[in-house]
Write a structure and sequence with these properties.
This protein is of the alpha+beta class. The protein folds into 2 domains: about 30-75 and about 160-283, D-amino Acid Aminotransferase, Chain A, domain 1 (2-Layer Sandwich); about 80-155, 2-Layer Sandwich (Dna Ligase, domain 1). The chain has helices at about 5-10, 15-25, 40-50, 55-60, 60-70, 120-130, 135-140, 220-235, 270-280; strands spanning about 80-85, 100, 110, 150-155, 165-170, 175-185, 190-195, 205, 240-245, 250-255, 265. It has a 5-stranded antiparallel beta sheet. A 4-stranded antiparallel beta sheet has the order 1-4-2-3. A hairpin with a 6-residue loop joins strand 2 and strand 3 (about 110). The radius of gyration is 19 Å and the shape is globular.
Length: about 280
């Protein structure tokens, strides 16, 4: 949906906004009385599962403390600092490589691989744009609505590929059913998504981005990642739990309640229903 249409619709109440945006994406209205598909159930969860803890879990700074208290701080990427404004950042105190992230949105990220070549003004422009945006209004992911906009700097990490492969686990009240591997995120090519089941068997499924032509290796700590995702999702109908693996070590990425905001079709469509069956709303 275009930014102009989003701005026009921003004044609408959540339910009507989600119905209209869903119609725009899928050419049909969501069944919110008896949702069946994954994307329909994500819209239902936005409207009717609003636990205050979700705001903490979606905050990229607070989530680190929440996750550390649940599975241990050895899985947490070290944080160098947290600030309310870009001008407060002491770049002299930061190492040669680091990552800046906004705590309250998705996409407000700046990567520095060499501080001597770092374009501070360009970074400032991107970060300030994110700080002035309430991500909630983009797709009504309400946990973002009341997150305090801040900036964190954390350790730069990369794996053997020179990139950072992302393992994103779809977990349902303590049971992980599937994951996708995100690759080519920092290359000039389009990002690739490859879906797998809980045994790391490739699924004939496309969602949001094409499959990679390269074979993804099963992470060495795959089984432990599954156990950690199970633990973090216990008690919640659905959470996508993201991890990285660097030099055999697992690092927590983030917790996501609404994969692609529930607005990305599955190909073939049967997977929208299969993933939907895994979300038990009766609980």
């Amino acid at each position: 949906m275009s930014t102009t249409i989003d701005n026009i619709l921003s004044i609408l109440p959540d339910k009507l906004y989600l119905q209209l945006k869903y119609f725009y994406r899928f050419h049909k209205f969501p069944n919110l009385k008896n949702p069946k598909t994954y994307n329909e159930k994500l819209q239902w969860l936005k409207l009717y599962d609003r636990r205050p803890i979700y705001t903490t879990m979606a905050d990229k700074y607070e989530a680190k403390q929440y996750v550390a208290s649940t599975i241990g701080d050895k899985y947490i990427v070290p944080t160098y600092g947290v600030w309310n404004k870009f001008g407060e950042i002491d770049f002299d105190s930061l190492p040669n490589q680091f990552v800046l992230k906004c705590t309250h949105d998705s996409g407000g990220v700046v990567i520095c691989k060499d501080k001597s070549k770092f374009d501070i003004e360009k970074a400032k422009e991107k970060i300030n744009k994110s700080l002035n945006t309430n991500y909630y209004y983009h797709s009504r992911e309400w946990p973002y609505k009341d997150i305090k906009p801040r900036i964190i700097a954390e350790k730069y990490i990369e794996d053997e590929s020179g990139d950072l492969t992302d393992y994103k686990f779809f977990s349902f009240d303590g049971e992980t059913k599937a994951l996708y591997v995100a690759t080519d995120r920092q290359s000039k090519e389009e990002t690739k998504f490859d879906f797998y089941d809980d045994k790391f068997i490739h699924l004939d499924l496309v969602n949001s981005h094409p499959n990679s032509s390269k074979e993804n290796k099963k992470p060495k700590q795959f089984e432990e990642m599954i156990l950690l995702a199970n633990k973090l999702s216990k008690g919640y109908p659905h959470i996508r739990v993201d991890f990285y693996e660097v030099n055999g070590e697992i690092y927590f990425g983030e917790l996501t309640f609404y994969h692609m905001s529930g607005f990305q079709p599955f190909y073939p469509e049967k997977w929208d229903y299969i993933f939907g069956e895994w979300i038990k709303l009766d609980k």
